[in-house]
């Protein structure tokens, strides 16, 4: 199994920044696993925000140029640096590993 612990969500003003973290643990986790961030608004499907793997990084068009995904393999942790946040970024963000394992979700609220 893989356990994921997310942190870093919260309330921020439009134009502000937040960094999400997701620490992975468990016997099934490998540093070679794809790690990603998804988000889901109420009543909508969960959508990919950003992913990182040995093949590189991938971003949703809506966050390109504003969000950056990175990982620290020594800490088994993936990060999502979010800059220039907009009200429409207000949703719950979920960490994902290997397309299979999900974190509990962390709320990001962008509001003045």
What does this 3D model show about the protein?
By secondary structure, the protein is mainly beta. The chain has strands spanning 3-7, 10-12, 18-25, 35-40, 47-53, 56-59, 67-72, 77-82, 91-97, 101-102, 106-110. The strands form 2 sheets. Strands 2, 4, 5, 6, 9, 10 and 11 form a 7-stranded mixed β-sheet that branches. Strands 1-3-8-7 form a 4-stranded antiparallel β-sheet, with no helix packed on it. It is globular. The model has no long low-confidence stretch (mean pLDDT 95).
Furnish the topology, listing elements before pairings.
Layout: E1 3-7, E2 10-12, E3 18-25, E4 35-40, E5 47-53, E6 56-59, E7 67-72, E8 77-82, E9 91-97, E10 101-102, E11 106-110
Parallel strand pairs: 2-11
Antiparallel strand pairs: 1-3, 3-8, 4-5, 4-9, 5-6, 7-8, 9-10, 9-11
Distance between the ends: 40 Å
Helices and strands, in order, run as EEEEEEEEEEE
Portion in strands: over 45%
Q: Strand tally, please?
A: 11
Q: What is the CA-based Rg, rounded?
A: 13 Å
Major pleated sheet: 7 strands, mixed
Helical content, roughly? under 10%
> Can you count the helices?
0
Indicate the overall shape. globular
The overall pLDDT, averaged over residues, is 95
Spans where pLDDT lies below 50 across 5 or more residues: none
Structural class: mainly beta
